[in-house]
Design a protein that fits this description.
It is a single chain. By secondary structure, the chain is α+β, with helices and mostly antiparallel strands. The protein is built from eight helices and 16 strands. Helix 1 packs across helix 2. The termini are far apart.
Length: 332
């Protein structure tokens, strides 16, 4: 038998969800069977939907070897060399600047060198997170970026911070996410794009449909021009919703494809940017998060702004476009 005292980071969740995290090697059916027959909370049998609170004692009536076998996956500590920069950090939140080419979470091809693992390694080194003693909780990102999109990712260091920041990301007006991108075409006025999207999971592609379509998820994107350079525009984008490939698919549908974007962009433009500047992926950077209203444990973050500068190669491309535009103007 093993007794587990629920801590602050494990409270406020159902018993079955706690067991699924505590015993990652157990099947879902086994978790529910254990909840019915092999688990007590504070000495009493309870249902799998029982909400746990900090201070509760969960008694697991299984042999220690069996428990360890089902927890073995959780005991693994993956360390990866740190590549991110810290934009902001306090006791609850860590805001990091994700570089190009790094996954936020692992996938079928890459499980070790991810931003999440790098952050866990950093927090373990700082003594903030101990994977060996943590029952089920691990610091987690509340937003994510594509592998080749750079910029700000927010991690909650404790369960309350993760829950409250996730809530802020869901509630319209609580937090605004801004991106910088260069698009093909001269965007001269603010765009407010409202449509629906359907994702093809097999192809990892998004199709944009009209807002009055019968299917698809609603998405809203606001794009404002920052500066024009010849046939291209530096644009600041605010995401009102956060759908897969939203910025790239939405701007392409509006006639302003992101330069370098292999999925939704213009092939001729992409070849030019690759030849002239060595750009082989989309020019897209998550450069600012503004907290308008903090929730719960993060109320104190109200009016906070987190920012990230453009990566060096993006800045170099912008400077080259400016020089080209000035040269064309001088020749006229």
């Amino acid at each position: 038998m093993r007794n587990i005292t629920i801590g602050d980071n494990e409270g406020n969740q159902r018993l079955d969800r706690f067991l699924r995290k505590y015993l990652p090697g157990a099947s879902l059916s086994l978790v529910y069977r254990l909840a019915r027959k092999n688990v007590k909370v504070n000495g009493e049998r309870v249902g799998s939907e029982r909400m746990l609170c900090a201070g509760d004692e969960v008694s697991l009536f299984l042999g220690e070897e069996k428990i360890d076998e089902m927890r073995r996956e959780r005991k693994k500590t993956v360390r990866a060399k740190r590549q991110f920069r810290i934009a902001f950090e306090d006791d609850n939140v860590l805001v990091v600047d994700k570089p190009f080419g790094l996954l936020t979470h692992g996938d079928s091809r890459e499980k070790k060198n991810t931003l999440a693992n790098q952050v866990l390694g950093y927090l373990a080194e700082q003594g903030v997170y101990d994977p060996a003693s943590s029952t089920t909780f691990a610091p987690a990102p509340v937003n994510r970026l594509d592998r080749n999109t750079t910029g700000l990712v927010v991690f909650g260091k404790n369960a309350d911070a993760v829950r409250d920041f996730n809530k802020m990301m869901r509630i319209s007006g609580d937090a605004d996410k801004y991106y910088l991108t260069v698009v093909k075409g001269r965007l001269t006025q603010k765009l407010i794009l409202r449509d629906r999207m359907v994702k093809d999971g097999a192809q990892n592609l998004v199709t944009v449909l009209p807002s009055d379509a019968d299917s698809g998820k609603l998405m809203e994107t606001i794009a404002e021009p920052v500066e024009y350079q010849g046939s291209y525009t530096l644009v600041e984008v605010r995401l009102v919703t956060g759908r897969t490939h939203q910025i790239r698919a939405h701007l392409a549908k509006a006639g302003y494809p992101v330069v370098g974007d292999a999925k939704y962009g213009d092939r001729v433009t992409n070849r030019y940017f690759e030849h002239a500047f060595g750009l082989t992926t989309q020019f897209l950077h998550a450069h600012r998060i503004r907290i308008n209203r903090g929730e719960g444990s993060l109320t104190y973050l109200s009016s906070s702004v987190f920012e990230s500068e453009l990566p060096e190669n993006f800045t170099r491309i912008l400077q080259a476009l400016r020089r080209e535009a000035r040269g064309r103007g001088a020749r006229r």
